[in-house]
Amino acid sequence: MNVIISNKYQALLASLDIDVIKSINGEFTVDELIAQFSNFYYNKMIIDITAIKGYQDISVIQQLSVNFDMSKVILLLDDSETVNSPMYLSQLVSMGIYNFATNVNVIKFLIDNPNTYKDVASYHNINGFKKPALNENVVDNTKGKIGQKIIGFKNITEHAGATTLVYLLKLHLEDTYKVKAVEVDGNDFIYFNDNSLASVSSITFNEFLNQNIDSDIILVDLNDSSVENYCDDVIYLIEPGRIQLNKLIRNDNEIFEKLRNKKIVLNRSVLNDKDVEEFEKESGSKVFYNMPYLDDKLDNQPIIKDFLCTLGFSRIDKESGGSGLFSIFK
Q1: 313 vs 152: CA distance, rounded Å
Q2: Nearest residue to 44 (alpha-carbon basis) of 89, 100, 13, 4
Q3: Quick one: CA torsion of 236, 237, 243, 249, rounded to 10 degrees?
């Protein structure tokens, strides 16, 4: 059974030949919808977008996406310029809203044949994202002029340390590069007591990038956001403990196939070179770097500098400074 929430298109939605368990008409805040349907069982919820107060503000739709299972929601869009703009549609996809239509006849099809990302990928970031222009003032010591570099870090096993690693990389880079560190859809940066760290949502990430167009490097703690495609490079972090790996495989036994040819970094690792070789053999993957446990109270560590040099940041002097705490590592 399905739910219909209508307003401007009440008559059109009433003409649908579907089973309806509940139908309401009018204009509602997201909080009012949550109050009515948070504990209500339904197959699909068909929403006339004009029934949502403030729907032209994408943050209102984000509130909807956070509080409802969007795989069960089908949005009937209106014909307004804002809602049909490439930016608005791209942001819908970024929030995991794949089932939307401007034609009521499509809705019945979507009930039985819901879209996947592949079906709506063409809407994602088309003309909606203004990628920062090349910063011609950035000069690499060995390669000459380069553009701004955006590098994302994503935890593959739970709590693999992306937030702390991004913070430490930022500390080591900022002496020789103009660097910004940002977390997307998270709020863990506040615990570092560093006002230069930024926290943004997925839907304001574009704006953040354009506001920092003069930065040489932007380090991104991706969390569970869907902004990976904005990055020039993505580092996938795995904590190679037995429990974490077993949990990872149980959740997705094809994970290493999905990570094939990706940059995998073993983080918070206690593995030696032989262990890493065994890991690569068993997982069928290639490890980009083996990173040990790091002390986040130290802001000058040779192992971090070596990692940055491996990533291609040639201004970093991996031999200078530091306490030598991890100097035994290659």
Answers
A1: 15
A2: 4
A3: 0
